[in-house]
Each structure stands twice: as C-alpha cells, then as structure tokens.
C-alpha cells in the first residue's frame, strides 16, 4: 500500500509510526510547515483520565497506558509526572456532578477524591479559597513532555522508513471511481491507496473540497508562561469559578490559560492583552503569592472542536475508499493520540473497529449518537 498521512503533529506522527511498525507499506507524511508546527507543541502538555463521559474516560485510560509504555519503545523520555488535577468547585451543582461521576470513575478503576474546603487549605496553603466550596482531586492525572513524545515518534518512524516531506502542503485529494487516487502537493502529484487526514485545525479545507462536511471548527486558545520559580504547585489547578487553569512545569514556570471570548475559525494566532489581564487577575486572586511573578511569554494555538467535544477517528463507509481521519480532538488530543494511532493503524490494515474506537467514528453525527462530553479545560 502507498499511504499519505497529512499533518506532522502528534496525531500524524502516531499514525505514521503505528502503520510503519506494522509494515503497512510505503508511508509518506506531508507537513506544510515543519514537524510539530501546529497545536501539538503549543499544548499545556497535561493528561487526565477524568472526563464526564465513559467513552472518553476509557479511551484516555488506555491512551495514557500507551503513552507510559512508549518510553521503552522510543529512545526519548516523555517525562511523565503524575502531579494530579485539582478542580476547585464554587457551587453545589459542580460538587454534585463530580460526586455522581466519581461513581463511574471508581467503576473504571480511577476514583478521585472529593475534598472539603479545609482539606484543600491544609494541602495547598497557597490557595485563596474565599468562594470555593470544595474540590475534586484526580491523582491519576499529570503531565508529559510534548516535544519528546513527538520527537520520539518522529525518529522511530524515520528509522522504520517513513518518508517525511516537510514544507510540503497537500492541496487536494484526487478521487476517482469513489477511491482516493492521488494527493496533489505543493511539490507535485503522488499516487496513493490510502489518505489519512491528521491535519488538525486545517482538516476541513481538504474534506470540504471533496464534499465532506463534519461538525467541527477551530477555536484559538492562548497561553501564558512565567519565569521559572521554586516548584510548589504540584497539581494542575482548574478553577471552575473563573474558567482559568494554572499549573507549574517541572522546570518551575507557571503556565495556564483562561476561557476568553474568541470568534471561531482559523483566525490569526496572536495573543491579546485582554486575555493576559484576564488570566493574571484570575490566577493572582486564587494564588496571591503569584502577584509579583514575571510573565516570560505567551502563545496561541487552535483547539479543533467537534460538535460533541470528542475526537473523530476512522471513516464513513460512504466516503471515497481509502480515506480516513483523526482530528477534532477538542483541546485534549495530545493525550488521546497515542491510542488513536494504534487503533487507526489496525483499522486501516484489517478493517477491525476496536470497541474503544467505535463511539468516535465520524458516522456518529449523522446517526445522532453524540458523546456529550462537556469537560473541556481552557
Ligand atoms: C493552548 C492549547 C493547550 C492544549 N493543552 C493540551 C493538553 O494539556 N493536553 C492535551 O492532550 N491536549 C492539549 N491541547 C490539544 C492538543 O494540542 C491537540 O489536540 C493536538 O495537538 C492535536 O494534534 P494534531 O496532530 O491533530 O494537530 P496539530 O498538532 O495541529 O498538527 C496538524 C499539522 O497539520 C499540518 N497541516 C495542516 N494542513 C496541512 C496540509 N494541507 N498539508 C500538509 N500539512 C498540513 C499543520 O501544519 C500542523 O502541523 C491543547 C491545545 C492548545 C491549543
């Protein structure tokens, strides 16, 4: 088989590696900029197993296991660190929701802990908890080093013979007799049997041109990072009152973001002063000791949101033969991509649809089987 993977983020790298390790044939990965240009290295580099839905929680549990095993395969240390996630809850409804969903998480083997306000104060004395009624702590959640994971996949895939075409845009998928036949790139035309679209926020450009429309849209997200300080914030803290999150990298930088109004679409990846002020206000109110911290940089990237805030993988049988997608990760894609790559490669080669993958097929939108995930952070 001759396979074109379009996009060199975590999704494309994971798919390309998993195809190559299964001797899928001749694999070409096209990246219009350079490997890791997109959202993958603009992410907060965090993982969690706690989602509102069973489908996403189960998928994440298995994907994190894949991520953990990766260090024995790739010669790069993904630096996995389980500092936990701490959700600060500011109303009774949130407490009830976490309490209720914790039954499902316990059932899946990943129970969290509900904290009363005084317990949070005891464990995290640096937090101002004026308006906080309680908290939910997920000890299974944590962080990784996104560059190392991507570079690990990249170097292995290269060793296994994947051909990387950087600075090469795929402009069109040529379809003939309802089969993918060629991809037209900025460097010429290439015959293919299979096309896998892992092109993140830009995926709809190629899909729409062949008449395929899925309910997804890019949403710009901005991030702030301070100078490094002595490490004192272990978990990622998600403030359900303000919509801000804040954590500390192992190196000591304070990193975070806040849900700040942005029009959808592929808009300029600038960061705005209004966003910075909004995050700084929310974070220094919650962690007053940070008020003298110095910002070092800001950046922006896209969440590719799907209608049910869950990723889309596989194909619709009505699409041209040979066409597959893995995108629409809705802000939690880095942690899902290791398993997406494995299951999608298996699916492409054998047609098998793993039961973990089945809920995430693109057909769910027209069949009205939406996943209803709403626990999106940032
Ligand atoms: C601010 C922010 C924080 C985040 N935090 C987290 C987090 O903590 N944990 C987590 O799991 N996820 C997080 N995410 C989400 C995560 O980063 C994404 O879901 C994931 O990186 C998506 O990977 P991808 O490979 O699909 O897309 P990308 O990494 O965007 O890669 C797509 C690539 O395709 C290329 N491309 C596009 N069109 C073409 C074309 N026509 N031809 C050739 N190449 C093309 C692009 O140049 C790009 O490099 C965050 C995202 C953002 C923006």
Please tell me about this protein's structure:
With 378 residues, this protein is an alpha/beta fold. It folds into two domains: 2-67 and 146-215 and 308-364, 3-Layer(bba) Sandwich (FAD/NAD(P)-binding domain); 82-142 and 219-302, 2-Layer Sandwich (D-Amino Acid Oxidase, Chain A, domain 2). 29% of the residues lie in helices and 27% in strands. It contains eight helices and 19 strands. The strands form four sheets. It has an eight-stranded mixed β-sheet, with helices on both faces. It has a six-stranded mixed β-sheet with strand order 8-2-1-12-19-18. It has a three-stranded antiparallel β-sheet with strand order 9-10-11, with no helix packed on it. A hairpin with an 8-residue loop joins β18 and β19. α1 (10-21) runs parallel beside α5 (146-159), α1 packs parallel to α8 and α2 packs across α8. The mean pLDDT is 97. The structure holds flavin-adenine dinucleotide.
